[in-house]
Design brief:
Elements lengths: L10 H11 L4 E6 L5 E5 H15 L8 E4 L5 H13 L2 E4 L9 H15 L3 E4 L1 H11 L6 E3 L21 E6 L9 E5 H14 L7 E4 L6 H14 L2 E4 L2 H6 L2 H10 L3 E4 L1 H10 L15 E4 L6 H11 L9 E5 L9 E2 L8 E5 H7 L12 E5 L3 E2 L3 E6 L12 E7 L5 E2 L3 H7 E2 L2 E11 L2 E7 L4 E3 L2 E3 L1 H12 L3 E11 L4 E10 L5 H19 L5 E5 L14 H10 L13 H7 L5 H17 L13 H4 L3 H15 L7 H4 L3 H12 L11 H12 L4 H15 L7
Parallel strand pairs: 1-10, 3-4, 3-5, 5-6, 9-10, 11-12, 12-13, 27-28
Antiparallel strand pairs: 1-2, 7-8, 8-20, 13-14, 14-17, 15-16, 18-19, 19-22, 21-22, 22-23, 24-25, 26-27
Helix pairs in contact: 2-3, 6-7, 10-11, 14-15, 18-20, 18-22
């Protein structure tokens, strides 16, 4: 049954109502890295939060913003509620781990502290020394509970805030530039908890099991606020421990009869790949009625891998749920209906990129791509799709996703211009691209992240997915974005990809070539540059998402740019000066170099003589560029469609030798063996239909003449 907060207008009152009804209920269970378990009742949480509020009041006043930096454990929860009890405004910052380089942590947290102007940093004794070393330049006092003065006997915190007053601030912006602080009121949070309890649904008998960090909005709401305020139960696993032991999630589902979990998309494939059979023996996952996928683009393949892996242990495919949301509405906007598998809409990728239409295509048809539905709007939320002028679009028309609800943020913290830009007439403009079909929402990408190449709209997550599949376990994160190229007059797609071992240059080039080919085959665009970087280079937001704008700026700041045209006029003079027998190798190297430079390949990228231009991903505009460069460099004329007429590098070199040195052309006729060898070279770059046609032409040309000829 859905929980209501009709008599409440503050988080404190909502929690105290549960304390009064369920004082001895074990509401929070923390699974520790040392295999021990810490269980917290409502009564203990209320006591500890009150003690924290009393202690904090010696240096923090109601309305002050405090930054909470704790490891993933109960101390963070007690501090969060202590600040809320006091009437202060908590904001949870990422915590430092032994694996986090100090420089990276400072880059991540210092801008947040500077922008937030937090009154103090609240932490525990185990982290204080480390934080003092890392964050001393910020000048913020770093407090622990044991260091604050003890209040006089009988002291109680002031009346808590509520209603439209600020409950907490969720920072959701990037790690460079100006962060975004989402200001959420008590009433907005309570309204949304009520809506979630209806749409999931989640009630007092449910058990949440999760490993998400609590500084992430999805972790804070689904693993803490929702279970606490509706009277449910939450089992919490430290994120760093889950990464090393993903099987703990499944063991906890079995042991505690978990009913709900939420994870980002990467975790589905990670679990399917990393959890071993011996860790699953004897487990029963049948209690798992809701497993949500949110926070990043959802991949159909991830769901399929997960279902195949865990269905033998009782996991039900209809437990899968896709969610779409953002901190600006506390956490959620739409979800798959409970008990129904997410709908998959196969659409034309070309129509999506060129016409902004979601035209249906047969399943797995050529040129089709699957988009997973994000379900229907959550209770009390209205979603619309609009064009750039704000006009509502029909179903299957792609536009910006906007919404209105009773859980909207109050504002962006200290950013009135951004607030006015996104909040208009009660509607929030998300900047996300999507469409509706049969009432359900489908998300295509991010408006500001779209790469516009020669009029085509390319969503960067398609490129990133291709790259991560190609790199596999040898790589980490990937970020794709567009950089404007003045010479071509259009954006050029750039890929930055983490590679764990950057010493093997040959392997880098092989993977790069594979990525280029797949990007061209699937998206019909060519990457201008693939930039290999070490782990930790790629910038993420505080919510764990790839910040493409920040990575684009970092790429530019390093002095990189799309491949540029260089001086080619030395080609013909150099060719005239070399011996006859060296002309073919010279021309092969020359054509290969021009092709590689146009495509943005590294100078050491190996090209085969039988490498097909289409296979390399050469577009029509790049074909013209290659033609122009060869004509200028060698002083000869090529057909406008040279890269398509000469299907391989080798066949183009043959043409150039004959065009440049016609007097040296051997006067011999091709033998059948010569012709077949040439044909086989061309076949490698052709489609199946083209191969059939070539073979027909070959047989026709070589069949014996008859009396009818």
């Amino acid at each position: 049954m859905a929980h209501t907060f009709a008599s409440n207008n503050s988080l404190v009152q909502a929690l105290k109502n549960q304390v009064n009804r369920n004082a001895d209920k074990a509401v929070l269970t923390f699974l520790q890295t040392d295999q021990t378990v810490q269980t917290i009742t409502y009564a203990q949480l209320d006591h500890d939060a009150t003690q924290y509020a009393q202690a904090l009041h010696q240096g923090v006043d109601p309305g002050d913003l405090v930054a909470l930096i704790f490891d993933h454990g109960y101390a963070l929860v007690a501090a969060f509620w202590g600040a809320v009890y006091l009437g202060a405004i908590p904001t949870i910052f990422p915590y430092v781990t032994p694996q986090t380089p100090p420089s990276i942590y400072k880059e991540r947290v210092e801008p947040l502290l500077e922008f937030s102007q937090a009154k103090a940093i609240i932490t525990d004794v185990s982290l204080k020394a480390t934080l003092s070393d890392h964050l001393a330049p910020t000048g913020r006092p770093i407090l622990t509970l044991d260091e604050t003065a003890h209040p006089p006997h009988g002291y109680s915190p002031p009346n808590p805030l509520g209603g439209a007053e600020t409950a907490y601030i969720q920072f959701s912006g990037g790690t460079t530039g100006r962060p975004k602080g989402v200001v959420l009121s008590h009433q907005a949070v309570l309204n949304h908890i009520h809506s979630l309890s209806i749409s999931f649904p989640f009630s007092a008998g449910d058990v949440s099991v999760g490993w998400l960090p609590l500084y992430h909005d999805m972790g804070l709401v689904t693993q803490l606020l929702l279970p606490l305020l509706v009277g449910g139960t939450s089992i919490l696993i430290p994120p760093a421990y889950w990464i090393r032991h993903p099987e703990r999630l499944f063991q906890a589902i079995d042991k505690y009869k978990g009913t709900m979990s939420w994870m980002p998309n990467f975790a589905f494939a990670y679990c399917a790949r990393r959890v071993q059979d011996n860790h699953l023996q004897g487990l029963d996952l049948s209690s798992w009625s809701l497993l949500g996928n949110g926070s990043e683009p959802v991949q159909l393949k991830s769901f399929q891998q997960f279902t195949r892996r865990f269905e033998p242990y009782g996991f039900r495919p209809d437990a899968l749920m896709v969610g779409y949301g953002m901190a600006e509405n506390v956490v959620g906007l739409s979800v798959t209906p409970p008990g129904q598998q997410p709908q998959v809409d196969w659409i034309s990728l070309d129509a999506l990129q060129t016409q902004q239409l979601a035209l249906p295509r047969p399943v797995y048809a050529e040129g089709a791509t699957p988009i997973l539905s994000c379900g229907y709007p959550i209770h009390d939320i209205e979603i619309a799709i609009v064009d750039p002028e704000g006009n509502t679009l029909d179903e299957r028309h792609v536009g910006e996703v906007i919404f209105t609800s009773n859980a909207l943020m109050t504002e962006y913290y200290h950013q009135p211009d951004l607030t006015a830009q996104t909040l208009r007439d009660g509607w929030f403009y998300t900047g996300d691209l999507g469409y509706k079909w049969d009432g359900q929402l489908y998300i295509c990408g991010r408006l500001k992240d779209v790469i516009i190449v020669e009029g085509k709209n390319i969503q960067p997550h398609y490129i990133e997915t291709i790259a991560q599949i190609a790199v596999g376990s040898a790589g980490g994160l990937a970020a794709a974005f567009g950089v404007f190229d003045e010479r071509s007059g259009t954006e050029r797609p750039i890929l930055v990809c983490e590679l764990l071992n950057d010493d093997d240059k040959l392997k880098q080039n092989q993977i790069a070539l594979q990525i280029r080919q797949r990007v061209f085959e699937q998206l019909d665009v060519s990457l201008a540059d693939i930039h290999w970087v070490p782990k930790g280079w790629i910038i993420k937001t505080t919510s764990g998402k790839i910040s493409r704008m920040a990575n684009r700026q970092k790429y530019i700041d390093e002095g990189r740019s799309p491949a540029t045209i260089t001086d080619n006029k030395q080609g013909w003079p150099a060719l005239q000066e070399i011996p006859t027998h060296q002309r073919r190798p010279f021309l092969f190297e020359y054509v290969s170099a021009q092709t590689a430079e146009i495509l943005g390949l590294g100078p050491t990228t190996p090209l085969s003589p039988r490498q097909g231009f289409l296979e390399l991903g050469l577009t029509s505009l790049q074909s013209v560029a290659l033609k122009n460069r060869i004509e200028i460099g060698l002083g000869c004329q090529l057909p406008d469609t040279a890269a398509f007429d000469f299907s391989t590098v080798d066949t183009l070199v043959d043409f150039l030798l004959q065009a440049l040195f016609p007097q040296e052309r051997p006067v011999v006729t091709s033998t059948p063996a010569d012709e077949m060898s040439s044909l086989l070279a061309a076949i490698e770059a052709l489609s199946e239909e083209d191969v059939k046609q070539k073979l027909i032409e070959h047989r026709s040309k070589n069949r014996p003449k008859t009396a009818d000829d």
